[in-house]
Amino acid sequence: MSNHGLSYQTRKALTVQLGENAGTEIANLLQRLAAQIEELKRSKVNITPVVPTIRRDFDPLEAIESEKF
Fold this sequence. Notes:
Shape: elongated
Order of helices and strands: HHH
Number of strands: 0
Largest sheet: none
Distance between the termini: 51 Å
Oligomer: single chain
Number of helices: 3
Structural class: mainly alpha
Helix content: 55-70%
């Protein structure tokens, strides 16, 4: 698992600009979000469609004219 923590300088800037409580809360939220994103990337599953999708730009008359059945 990779390090999701913010650097000391970033945490310090957040607490200076937003106050101790708000800065710490936002830093913790960012850390949790980064961990959740990493988990989603790790558990991502590629889906292969079983039934071909219908092309929305398909024109049946064009297919007849070009003999693409």
